[in-house]
Write a structure and sequence with these properties.
It is built from twelve helices and no strands. The protein is mainly alpha-helical. The longest helix is centred in the middle third of the chain and has 24 residues. The protein is globular and about 55 Å long.
Length: 300
């Protein structure tokens, strides 16, 4: 986003600054193995040991805290979109000019995602599995529908989730017709078509489609934050929406496993619920309780 990244149009959403700063801190901590290094000598069964286990991806089925970092990114970008668009409109930019900017940014994100995939590979490869490449898709789709009604945006987000569920369950190609089995599903088959498969990590490029829901929900949250509703009303809506996501995601997990690596419907719902609740907590702490100074805010 712009240098004044969040708002000039409405009162600054400090909670988004905090949420984004916290996510970046967690990402850096993850890459440097900060938390595992702190907890690696902890006694098995202790609280510290349990915390350390949360800072690694689930091998396949399940959900740990570290699996929320990508949904956080997708969601945060969505929250910022209405503010960024409003700022550009305030500066006199027309819809066509804003759309060109969005298209350019999406293309840059895609190139950066491809570039990261090439590092250390010794060759040029076009993988869509990383966050930046997938953001180029989710960001663009969420922007293109942001001026539609809340109901329409919600319907589109759930349509993407349901479509993904149906494709995985009904895919017929032999060897790839096991919906929720590593390397034997539709997502892996699609990646083999262009040589972009990631068989070791089981991540798939098609994740960009279902996880677009996270960015759409972020846009809706941003529009909610920009509305004239009372702070307590905004907080209530975030909490209710988050709880709905959690209840649906975990209740349906016996039917469809929660798998981040192929972004199953239950993963999108459960992680989306946690993401909405994380924003709700940030909003309550930073904007409602006015905790804009002190250690908790320094990371942003």
């Amino acid at each position: 986003m712009q240098s004044q990244s969040i708002t000039e149009v409405k009162e600054r959403l400090y909670s988004l600054d905090f949420f984004r700063g916290l996510t970046m801190f967690l990402l850096i901590a993850g890459f440097t193995r900060l938390f595992p290094s702190i907890t690696e000598n902890a006694q098995e069964g202790s609280l510290l040991y349990a915390i350390g286990l949360q800072f690694d991806h689930v091998a396949w089925d399940g959900l740990k805290f570290w699996d929320l970092i990508q949904p956080y990114f997708m969601f945060i970008v969505g929250v910022a979109i209405p503010y960024a668009v409003a700022n550009r409109e305030k500066k006199g930019h027309g819809q066509e000019q804003i759309t060109r900017h969005v298209l350019k940014r999406a293309f840059v994100l895609l190139l950066l995602g491809w570039g990261i995939s090439c590092i250390g590979s010794g060759k040029i490869i076009f993988h869509f599995q990383n966050v930046l490449a997938q953001l180029s898709v989710t960001y663009l789709i969420a922007y293109l529908i942001m001026h539609k009604s809340v109901r329409t945006q919600i319907i589109i987000s759930f349509a993407l989730i349901i479509m993904t569920e149906l494709i995985y369950r009904t895919f017929w190609v032999e060897g790839f017709n096991h919906a929720f089995v590593p390397n034997e599903n539709f997502g892996t088959w699609l990646d083999t078509l262009y040589g972009g498969e990631d068989l070791r990590g089981h991540w798939v490029s098609f994740n960009a489609i279902p996880t677009t829901a996270h960015t759409i929900w972020g846009v809706l949250a941003g529009q909610l934050m920009m509305s004239d509703r009372l702070p307590k009303q905004k907080l209530k809506i975030l909490i209710i929406a988050g709880l709905i996501g959690l209840i649906l995601g975990y209740a349906l997990s016996p039917i469809t496993p929660i798998v981040k690596r192929i972004c199953t419907s239950t993963f999108i719902l459960a992680s989306g619920g946690w993401t909405l609740l994380s924003l709700a907590f940030s909003y309550w702490l930073i904007d409602i309780k006015n905790k804009k100074t002190g250690p908790c805010f320094l990371i942003s």
